[in-house]
């Protein structure tokens, strides 16, 4: 709303200029102003993904980790000891720790594999997707996680057959979803990881 008011005010000023300095100069000024407004709109629509450093604290399950609390990542637990991040664009079988039920097929294997490739105290990069919400209804961050060499952990889990490509049907597809889906097709075809043992992985 403020930007719209600014635009209208600027247009009014230019109208006054029109009567004082002539049509040609004022018309050019209006054209420039419209161009600037359009450029600002385009820049906002194509906002880049945000990247923030973090320190891994622990593995929760195959698609969820926690990091040390910081300015960028305030604590999400009652004790103020960690911030939870749900890996965006994938899903892994549930460990069912809260319900007390048996873990789903491949759940422990997915968590173990994730723990093999990233460790507590390791520096990671949290990448937020420009298309997706940054948090879910549980207060967890929704993001990609990359190692120092650029390895995308979610993509690796899919390639190795420990996760499936997934996003909520009611939400827009994350930017990396198509590459995850292609990786899943290949891992299913090759029968790698838990595809060799589980009827389904994730949802």
TrEMBL record:
Organism's domain of life?
Bacteria
Q: Which residues cross the membrane?
A: none
Output the Gene3D superfamilies linked to this UniProt entry: 2.40.50.90
| Signal peptide bounds | 1-25
InterPro entries, alphabetized: SNase_OB-fold_sf (IPR035437), Staphylococal_nuclease_OB-fold (IPR016071), TonB_box_CS (IPR010916)
Q: Is Signal given among the entry's keywords? A: yes
Tell me the keywords, alphabetical order.
Signal
- Ranges for domain TNase-like come to 50-197
Q: Which SMART domains match?
A: SNc
- Supply the Pfam families for this chain: SNase
Its protein name is Thermonuclease family protein
Q: Which species does this protein come from? A: Cryobacterium zhongshanensis
Q: What is the lineage of its organism?
A: Bacteria, Bacillati, Actinomycetota, Actinomycetes, Micrococcales
